[in-house]
Design brief:
Blueprint lengths: L6 E4 L2 E5 L5 E4 L6 E3 L2 H9 L6 E3 L24 H6 L4 E5 L5 H9 L4 E4 L4 H14 L3 H22 L5 E6 L1 E2 L2 E2 L6 H8 L2 E3 L13 H7 L3 E4 L20 H4 L3 E3 L12 H14 L2
Parallel strand pairs: 4-5, 4-6, 6-7, 8-11, 8-12, 12-13
Antiparallel strand pairs: 1-2, 2-3, 9-10
Length: 281
């Protein structure tokens, strides 16, 4: 069969193209599914496919029902013997997030690996359509995608053209880490009308010096630590009372699950970021 984009669905047969254009054909919607990232787990549950999830990876904690699903590793390393023993009829992997060598090995084992790309916010909406179609819930996937894109347009329409605000997004404190260039969070900040400092840096979680942050004079500092609690190190910046973000009391923390997971809840994280940036105007 010639690969093409899009997907078809007729009677019980399901045909869906992954983000490499490869067509996956199932005589009936898959019933034994394994997800390789927390955000793909969330996406599966959104499409009401949680009852088909036979295994997933560590940190797949949302919705709460996912917490009782067996683990076969994490998004970087899997127990391949356990994966094979579960005999999945569909594996959902993150193309660009899961290590390529791991994904290649799953395919060499003969398992049906459907690669999902979520490099942009629009990709998240497409993933909804794809997973909905895979489950035999094409209408549900289409409806979720439309709602997601409508909310995205509403948010960026409200904030994007307002005065630009300098934003420092901090991932860690020792050493000080920030966002890689061109990532989804940087895109979210831009759509909120923010200017992400150090946007030209390459690599995952590049480091910057304390002096460089002070010289850049961020108006807003957003910290995403480990878990939902506000990281204590965020308030270290209060040592510099002349820093615009400190003067304006614009030091914010964010639940990393709402923005680092490129899944259905990412617009909740975007709304929080947009509102934080807007308070600094």
């Amino acid at each position: 069969m010639i690969c093409h984009s899009g997907y078809l669905q007729a009677a019980a047969t399901v045909e869906v193209a992954d983000d490499r254009g490869r067509i996956f054909t199932f005589q009936a919607p898959p019933q034994r599914i394994i997800t390789l990232t927390p955000h793909l787990t969330e996406l599966l549950y959104l499409m009401e496919g949680g009852d088909r999830l036979v295994a997933t990876v560590e940190f797949s904690n949302y919705p709460p029902a996912a917490q009782s699903v067996p683990r076969i590793g994490n998004y970087e390393r899997l127990d391949m013997e356990q994966l094979l023993a579960l005999k999945p009829d569909l594996v959902l992997g993150w193309d660009g997030g899961n290590p390529s060598a791991m994904l290649d090995r799953i395919e060499k084992l003969g398992l049906p690996l459907f690669r999902v790309v979520t490099a942009t916010l629009e990709d998240v909406a497409r993933g909804m359509r794809q997973v909905g179609a895979l489950l035999g819930h094409r209408g549900r996937g289409e409806a979720a995608s439309v709602r997601f894109l409508a909310e995205l347009q509403q948010l960026q329409g409200r904030y994007r053209e307002r005065r630009a605000v300098k934003v420092f997004y901090q991932l860690w404190h020792q050493p000080i880490m920030t966002l890689e260039s061109g990532g989804v969070i940087e895109d979210v900040i831009a759509r909120c009308g923010g200017e992400s400092l150090f946007s030209g840096l390459k690599g995952i979680a590049p480091t910057v010096s304390e002096e460089a942050v002070l010289a850049a004079a961020p108006e807003v500092i957003i910290a995403a630590g480990m878990g939902q609690k506000r990281p204590q190190w965020l308030d270290n910046w209060r040592r510099w009372q002349s820093l615009p973000a400190v003067q304006g009391e614009h030091l914010y923390s964010l639940d990393p699950d709402l923005i680092h997971r490129q899944g259905p809840r990412i617009l909740q994280g975007m709304r929080t970021i947009c509102e934080a940036i807007d308070r600094a105007r």
